[in-house]
């Protein structure tokens, strides 16, 4: 079992965890009475509003929780814009900010739309659809095992890596970090995004 | 004046006859004579509107005669048909439509879709009524209202994004006692825009070569999820509608140009593709969701 690191910063790890209430942005963006996130132009406008908020924060890495829990209807066009296209934008090397995303959605009401758009783009995301964070979207069995272990341990230091995940632990966690599904610090520590979001 | 006879019963199964008459219209006055009409579903109503619009586009002056009385008149009123028809048919009587009561079979009156705001309006509006009909009548689980709203959003967006012109949507519950022995929800969506073949032609016609036509375009959109947009995220709408309707053992068909393509459930055996139909500009989407029967 890996040593469970204390809370606090992970090296020069992500700071300033924050949440964005997507329903509030929907209300600001379109006149939807029911917090319904539908139509592609609405999704695009909401994504741009989220990006706008992200550019005003620190240039250092940080974790953002996109909270969909007050959104009622999430259609596929909006899931594509607000989840998939946002992830794609911040996976690029020329991303406008060093952001890691967590998503909080509402069970089966949103899960299907999110999974479909992730699958279509070959993306994965860390998402709480009720009952804790899980990895949604395409990933190999080894990636899922590594992600689940990290999520359980919250943080894994270099001395515990082999014990927790075997010889392939480092490349697996580095791979997850490249997919923006985990944080890999310069000193060889890995941290689960959900743990970083809980960091005060 | 040319007269187009509307049959006593008009639904998705015989609307092609009306399209054929509308397509043959010359620049002359034409009367769509629906005085014998006794039964009509959302697809029938939207087809009448489309036929009138097609005739008008050909330079005709379309007129419409409706029955003087009977159940169908009250139903047309509840669905808001006279108001929609008055915008297309010359001197069409605009009767006051009654707002449906909570127990009404009407889920969604005929609603014009031209912009994304219209789609928001429809999705916002159907929530409470859809919940009642889907759970109490069709016995779908509570989450079905969300999935249904997503379907509604996607079919309406199809008009805005692909038709390049306005269209309509309507939905109504029926008791198909004789036909199926179950309650059903019928959703009709129609536009007289550019149709699937024209919409997809610029992006995809070349690689299909001589095979390109109405059937190929419908197969490309319906089966392969192709759209006119070179974006991986596009084209999910129809695919997801098909998946969800199949989960509910429903029927979904798309009519465009001279062809129709469908996913047919076991209770409605029909060929997946029909071609050689009368030309219909634009697209018509028909969805039938049957009451859930466990076991």
Strand segment tally of chain B: 12
Low-confidence stretches of chain A: 1-11
What is the helix tally of chain B? 9
Oligomer: heterodimer
Overall structural class of chain B, as computed from helix and strand content, comes to alpha/beta
Helix content of chain B: 25-40%
What is the C-alpha radius of gyration of chain B, as a whole number of Å? 18 Å
How far from one another are the termini of chain B?
56 Å
Helix content of chain A: 40-55%
How many DSSP H or I helices of chain A?
8
N- and C-termini, Cα separation of chain A: 25 Å
Query: How many domains, in number, for the residues of chain A?
Result: 2
- Catalogue the unreliable spans of chain B: none
* Succession of helices and strands of chain B: EEHEEHEHHEHHEEHHHEEEE
Concise structural overview:
The complex is a heterodimer of chains A (200) and B (295). Chain A is built from eight helices and eight strands; from the N terminus they run βααβαβαββαβααββα.
Ordered list of secondary-structure elements with their pairings:
The complex is a heterodimer of chains A (200) and B (295).
Chain A: E1 15-21, H1 22-29, H2 40-55, E2 62-67, H3 76-91, E3 99-104, H4 107-121, E4 125-128, E5 133-136, H5 141-153, E6 155-156, H6 161-165, H7 169-178, E7 183-184, E8 190-191, H8 193-198
Parallel strand pairs in A: 1-2, 2-3, 3-4
Antiparallel strand pairs in A: 4-5, 6-8, 7-8
Chain B: E1 2-5, E2 9-10, H1 15-23, E3 29-33, E4 39-40, H2 42-57, E5 61-65, H3 71-78, H4 81-86, E6 106-113, H5 116-137, H6 144-163, E7 167-176, E8 182-191, H7 195-208, H8 214-222, H9 236-247, E9 251-257, E10 259-263, E11 273-274, E12 280-290
Parallel strand pairs in B: 1-3, 2-4, 3-5
Antiparallel strand pairs in B: 6-7, 7-8, 8-12, 9-10, 9-12, 10-11
Helix pairs in contact in B: 1-2, 5-6, 6-9, 7-8
């Amino acid at each position: 079992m890996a040593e469970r690191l204390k809370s606090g910063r992970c090296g020069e790890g992500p700071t300033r965890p924050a949440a964005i209430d997507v329903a509030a942005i929907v209300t600001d963006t379109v006149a939807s009475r029911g917090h319904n996130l539908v139509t592609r132009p609405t999704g695009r406008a909401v994504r741009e509003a989220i990006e706008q908020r992200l550019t005003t924060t620190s240039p250092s890495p940080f974790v953002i929780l996109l909270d969909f829990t007050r959104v009622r209807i999430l259609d596929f066009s909006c899931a594509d814009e607000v989840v998939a296209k946002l992830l794609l934008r911040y996976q690029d090397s020329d991303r406008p900010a060093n952001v890691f995303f967590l998503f909080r959605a509402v069970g089966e009401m949103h899960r299907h739309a999110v999974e479909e758009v992730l699958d279509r783009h070959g993306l994965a995301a860390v998402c709480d659809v009720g009952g804790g964070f899980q990895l949604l979207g395409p990933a190999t069995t080894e990636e899922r095992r590594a992600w689940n272990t990290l999520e359980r341990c919250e943080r894994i230091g270099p001395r515990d890596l082999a014990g927790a995940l075997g010889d392939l632990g480092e490349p697996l966690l580095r791979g997850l970090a490249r997919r923006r599904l985990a944080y890999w610090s310069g000193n060889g520590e890995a941290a689960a995004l959900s743990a970083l979001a809980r960091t005060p | 004046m040319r007269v187009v006879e509307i049959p006593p019963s008009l639904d998705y199964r015989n609307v092609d006859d009306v399209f054929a008459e509308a397509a043959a219209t010359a620049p002359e006055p034409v009367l769509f004579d629906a005085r014998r009409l006794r039964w009509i579903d959302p697809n029938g109503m939207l087809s009448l509107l489309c036929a009138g619009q097609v005739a008008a586009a050909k330079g005709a002056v379309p007129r419409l005669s409706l029955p003087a009385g009977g159940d169908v008149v009250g139903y047309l009123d509840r669905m808001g048909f006279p108001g929609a028809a008055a915008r297309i048919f010359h001197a069409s009587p605009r009767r006051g439509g009654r707002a449906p009561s909570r127990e009404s079979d009407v889920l969604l009156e005929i609603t014009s879709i031209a912009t994304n705001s219209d789609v928001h309006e429809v999705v916002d509006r159907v929530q409470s009524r859809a919940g009642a009909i889907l759970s109490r009548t069709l016995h779908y689980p509570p989450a079905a209202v969300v999935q249904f709203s997503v379907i509604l959003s996607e079919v309406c967006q199809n008009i805005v994004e692909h038709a390049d012109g306005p269209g309509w949507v309507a939905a109504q519950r029926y008791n198909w006692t004789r036909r199926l022995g179950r309650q059903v929800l019928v959703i009709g969506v129609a536009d007289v825009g550019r149709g699937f073949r024209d919409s997809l032609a610029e992006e995809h016609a070349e690689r299909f070569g001589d095979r390109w036509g109405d059937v190929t375009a419908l197969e490309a959109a319906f089966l392969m999820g192709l759209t006119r947009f070179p974006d991986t995220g596009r084209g999910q709408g129809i695919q997801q509608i098909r998946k969800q309707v199949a989960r509910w053992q429903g029927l979904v068909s798309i009519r465009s140009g001279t062809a129709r393509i469908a996913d047919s459930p076991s209770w409605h055996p029909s060929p997946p593709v029909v071609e050689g139909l009368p030309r219909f500009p634009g697209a018509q989407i028909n969805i039938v969701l049957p009451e859930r029967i466990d076991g």
